Fold N-terminal nucleophile aminohydrolase.
Amino acid sequence: MMGDGMVSMGNMIVKPNAVKIQRLFPKGGLNKASNGLDQKENDQKAVIVGFAGATADAFTLLERLEGKLDEYPGQLSRSCVELAKGWRTDKYLRRLEASLIVADENKSLEITGNGDVLEMTDGIIGIGSGSPFALAAARALMSVEDMSAEEVATRAMNVASDMCVYTNKEFLSYTVDDMSGINEEP
């Protein structure tokens, strides 16, 4: 999963290096292994989450998602559906303006405030203002042989940042396979 760092208010750049993707570990919170255990000792793999929209709203949803992942361990789809149900029906949550992408080693899902939990047939998902450009570029690049998913994502994000004024080149990339460190792309 890859995200840019742009945060804007209207037509003004507020922050160029925001972190829009997070790792959720079961029973452990954002960006930390559960109960101090090494992630390899934990029976449930980490989940990577990306967000777009209002930051406070996104973090509220991340906390709710974390609760659902703890409630339904190892069941990413069910956790996401339960989050979407609550998001759609709860009077407080209904007003939140954000979108989430959630991925584990088996699937990637988009969750929206309309109650949608979407799994794309080609496995490519994008949210945010630059996502149409990044999606189109990634889908075109998928046919290039010997190109890794990270290379496709980096090139697609470069296309998006060249075309969308609300997308910059401050990319951050997390992979499910490498949970020991953060991969930053130029």
Observations:
- Residues 90 and 111 are 15 Å apart (CA to CA).
- Residues 28-42, 180-186 have pLDDT under 50 and may be disordered.
- The helical segments are 55-71, 76-89, 131-141, 149-163.
